[in-house]
Specification:
By secondary structure, the chain is of the alpha+beta class. The chain contains 14 helices and ten strands.
C-alpha cells in the first residue's frame, strides 16, 4: 500500500476533477432536468420524517395522511392528461416522483399502483371509461391502486390463470382466486385479468384473456372476498376470492381476449417504477452509510477511513448510478410508445440488485445500530428486499433476456 501511495499519490492528485471531501455528498443531490419535481417531492416529504414512517411500520398501518398529501398536491394524477384534470406527464416524471419518496425515507409501495394502473387505462380504455373515471381520480375522489393478475397455482405463468369471466345477460360473471394483490383495502378501483375464452379453445395461449375495471365498493362482500396476508414488510396485500362476481359489460377494457397484451403495458410501467423506487432506496442507504462512516470514530479515526468500509460503499454507489441509466432508458422508450419490455426488466433487475447491495452495506457500516428501529435501516432493509422477488423474480428476468435478447432456447 505504501508503494501505491508513493507511485500514485492521493486520489485527489490523481483525479483533479474529483469532488473534494467536503462536497462529496452533494454528488448524491446534484441538480438534473427533473429538479423542480425533485424539490417539490422533497419538500412534501419533509413533513413526513422518519418518525412518521417508523410509527406507521410499527402499527402495520397505511400512511393515509401522506397519501392524502400526495393526492392533494396532484402528484398521483401526474400521468393523467390535462383534459381530464391531470398534469399530462409521462412515466419518466412518475418514476422521479416514486424515486424521491423512497429517497426521502418513505415507501412508494403504498401508492405506486396508481401510476402503473393508470397506464393500462390511459392506453387501452375507451373514451367513455376515461371520461367516467379519470376526472375523479385526478380530483382525488377515486383511487386506482390495485391490479389483480397473480394466482396461487400459476404465479408468473400468467397464461394459465384459472379465474374466469363468463359473459351473461350484458354482464361478466367472475369466478376464481387471486393472491398477493396489493392495496385493495385502500383503493376504489381495481384492474382485473381473467380468462374469457378457455385455454383449450385459443390458438395462442396469450389469447383469450381480458381485463376489467372492478369498482370495489360494489364488489366486496357481493361476490368478492378479501383476505389480508400478514407479511415481512408493512405492505397491504391480500388473497381474493371471486364467487359469481358480476361486472358490467362496459367495464371491459379494450377488446375481449386481448387483455394479456394490454396488461403488458401496465407490467412494464410497474417494473420501471419499482426500479426507480429501488434507486431511491439505494441513494438513501448510501447517504446514511457515508454519513455514518464519516462521523463514527473508532480507534481515534473515522471508520470511513478504512478501505474495508469505504470500498463497499463506493461499489454500491457505482451500481446504483449504472442502474439509474437503464431506468431512464426504459422510461424513454415507454413514453415514446416503443417496445420496452427488455429495458423494463433489466432496469428492475439492476436497480433491485443495487439497492439490496446498498442495504447490506448500510447495515454492515452501522453494525449493531443498524438493527435498532430508531435508525430506520432495518425498516428500509426489509422494504427493499421485497424487490428481489416481486413483481417478477430475478430468474424470470434472466430467462427473458436469454430467450428474447440472446436467442437462447426457452428454458421452461
Amino acid at each position: 500500500m505504501r508503494f501505491m501511495s508513493e507511485a500514485q499519490g492521493s486520489a485527489f492528485a490523481a483525479f483533479p476533477d474529483a469532488p473534494k471531501p467536503e462536497t462529496t455528498m452533494s454528488v448524491l443531490n446534484a441538480p438534473d432536468q427533473h429538479q423542480e419535481i425533485r424539490d417539490a417531492i422533497r419538500s412534501l416529504c419533509s413533513d413526513y420524517p422518519d418518525e412518521y414512517f417508523r410509527k406507521i411500520d410499527e402499527q402495520r398501518a397505511y400512511p393515509e395522511a401522506f397519501v392524502d398529501a400526495l393526492i392533494g398536491a396532484g402528484w398521483l394524477s401526474a400521468m393523467i392528461p390535462e383534459e381530464y384534470g391531470g398534469s399530462g406527464l409521462g412515466l419518466t416524471a412518475a418514476s422521479v416522483i416514486m424515486e424521491e419518496i423512497n429517497r426521502s425515507g418513505g415507501n412508494s409501495g403504498a401508492v405506486h399502483g396508481q401510476m402503473y394502473n393508470m397506464g393500462t387505462l390511459l392506453r387501452n380504455g375507451s373514451k367513455a371509461q376515461k371520461e367516467k373515471y379519470l376526472p375523479d381520480i385526478a380530483a382525488g375522489k377515486l383511487r386506482i391502486q390495485s391490479m389483480a393478475v397473480t394466482e396461487p397455482t400459476t404465479g408468473t405463468d400468467t397464461t394459465k390463470i384459472k379465474t374466469t369471466a363468463v359473459k351473461r345477460d350484458g354482464r361478466y360473471v367472475v369466478n376464481g382466486q387471486k393472491v398477493w394483490i396489493s392495496r385493495v383495502q385502500h383503493s376504489d378501483l381495481m384492474i382485473l385479468l381473467a380468462r374469457t375464452t378457455p385455454l383449450a379453445d385459443v390458438k395462442k395461449k396469450s389469447e383469450g384473456m381480458s381485463i376489467f375495471i372492478v369498482e370495489l365498493k360494489d364488489a366486496i362482500d357481493k361476490g368478492l372476498t378479501v383476505r389480508p396476508i400478514p407479511n415481512l414488510v408493512n405492505h397491504e396485500t391480500n388473497e381474493l376470492f371471486f364467487d359469481n362476481l358480476e361486472i358490467p359489460e362496459e367495464n371491459l377494457i379494450g377488446e375481449e381476449g386481448k387483455g394479456f397484451k394490454y396488461i403488458l403495458d401496465g407490467l412494464n410501467a410497474e417494473r420501471t417504477l419499482i426500479a426507480a423506487e429501488c434507486i431511491g432506496d439505494g441513494y438513501w442507504f448510501i447517504d446514511r452509510a457515508a454519513k455514518y462512516a464519516n462521523e463514527r470514530v473508532v480507534f481515534d479515526r473515522p471508520i470511513g477511513k478504512n478501505q474495508g468500509v469505504q470500498f463497499p460503499i463506493a461499489d454500491a454507489f457505482i451500481e446504483i448510478e449504472a442502474a439509474n441509466l437503464m431506468r431512464f432508458k426504459a422510461c424513454e422508450l415507454f413514453d415514446a410508445h416503443q417496445p420496452c419490455g427488455a429495458q423494463a426488466n433489466m432496469a428492475k433487475y439492476l436497480a433491485a440488485k443495487a439497492s439490496w447491495e446498498a442495504a447490506n452495506v448500510c447495515m454492515q457500516t452501522h453494525g449493531g445500530f443498524g438493527f435498532a428501529n430508531e435508525y430506520d435501516i432495518e425498516r428500509k432493509f426489509r422494504e427493499t428486499r421485497l424487490y428481489q422477488v416481486a413483481p417478477i423474480s430475478t430468474n424470470l428476468i434472466f430467462s427473458y433476456v436469454a430467450e428474447h435478447l440472446l436467442g437462447l432456447p426457452r428454458s421452461f
